[in-house]
Amino acid sequence: MRRIRQPGPLPAVGSLLNEAGYLGLQERFPRALVVQAIREQLARERQAGPSGDEERLSAVGALLADWAAPRLRPVINGTGVVLHTNLGRAPLSRAAADAAAEIAAGYSNLELDLETGRRGDRSALVEDLLRRLTGAEAALVVNNNAAAVLLALTALGARREVVVSRGQQVEIGGSFRMPDVMRLSGARMVEVGTTNRTRAADYEAAVGPRTAALLRVHTSNFRVTGFTETPPLDELARVAQRHGILLLDDLGSGALEPIFDEPTVAESLASADLTTFSGDKLLGGPQAGIALGKSATVARLVKHPLARAVRVDKMTLAALEVTLRERLLGRPSPVASMLSATPAELRRRAGFLMVRLEEHGVESSLVEAESAFGGGSLPGRGLPTILLALDGRASRLAAALRRGAPPVLARVEGDRCCIDLRTVLPGEDDALQEAIEAAVLASRDR
Question: pLDDT tens digit string along 282-291?
């Protein structure tokens, strides 16, 4: 009977480093990193038992490759969710992305007035564009809308009362709750009305000598229907004016043009002293929080120490500037192009991809469905779309697509794995086709 040779005792790290295979790894990775990988592999072998020489070398190489692999990777969004928070919300235009890369790669006049040579204000770089686009008196950009709201409440309402409807005690992704933001700001929240009905008279009755502001929070990630009532913003403005207090409006999505019944930035500015919204939602820019309003109100935010903690970086400003300039010149953002795509256009695009896949033995069909806005924008509203439904086991196909190169995020409708071309960017169709073919093959092999 043939005896199987058992692996010998674990070798020393130093001896492995001098072997040919590990010397090869040191040509691709720093020696110290190779040492870490060897030690980690040997520690595993102490628990599970020694490995053979080839198996050990392969495991060390795999560890190094995994450590050096990028974690943040481009993906193809086939879900039909335009502002997909898990996928980074709004994709930037090529010009905006190029501007961010150019500014990141060198020095810039981030806080330098080139005319006078004196220190400048980074927010001033985009303030004129924001004022021209919205009609606001003044503007401030911070790192996201949650930061803009926190800064506003801290600068304008700390140690005083802020009145808000019970129906607007929202929670956004990551358990970020408006009552918690209020508490962090130092403002005391005064709730009025009920979950489904709040009137202007409720706000009026709650105003007292310690009241700093009324706050409207747009319920951008849910919709209450039925027996409901919410006072229009101009009524709240009249209450605030009668008592000499501020009206703050957390607008959320930041629609510059009318879309469904979403309140617009212009409508908000017509009544509120301060309006805040996200740069990476309906505006279609980078992650940012934009605060617009009366000059005196915005100035209080600018001067507050917290403004420095939440200030925006140079790459974001570069991308936001291009996004705003393109909007000013009437050039649609990638988000705007996705939202305006018609079912007929999507049917032609999906149909062409279906024919190409069929030529390579991949069966699919077209299904009518709806795309979603996502990102806490326009909940309950959908856009008619056409899905490319792939034949095969949905869960296996979706997993194979997600683990592919490039990763593709699909949606499952019923028992079909589907791709919504609305959110597949121009120029990604060829890569998508190859990814689908590879995923179908992988799912068949399992």
Answer: 999 999 999 9
CA distances from 240 to 142, 179, 216, 219, 272 (A): 26, 21, 12, 21, 9
CA distances from 332 to 267, 287, 337, 390 (A): 22, 18, 6, 31
Cα dist from 229 to 72, 124, 197, 271, 381, whole Å: 44, 39, 4, 19, 20
Q: 394 near 51, Cβ under 8 Å? A: no
- Is the separation of the CB atoms in 52 and 16 below 8 Å? no
Measured CA distances, 378 to 46, 84, 133, 168, 413 (Å):
56, 13, 22, 15, 21
CA 117 to each of CA 109, 114, 314, 318: distance values in angstroms, whole numbers, following the listed order:
10, 5, 19, 20
- pTM of the full structure: 0.91
Which of helix, strand or coil describes residue 122?
coil
Q: Which residues pair with 264 in a beta bridge?
A: 255
Name 432's Cβ contacts closer than 8 Å, sequence gap at least 6: 76, 78, 353, 408, 419, 424
Q: Give bridge partners of residue 268 from the DSSP assignment.
A: none
pLDDT digits (tens, 9 = 90+) for 12-32: 999 999 999 999 999 999 999
Q: Measured between alpha carbons, how far is 23 from 425 in angstroms, rounded to an integer? A: 43
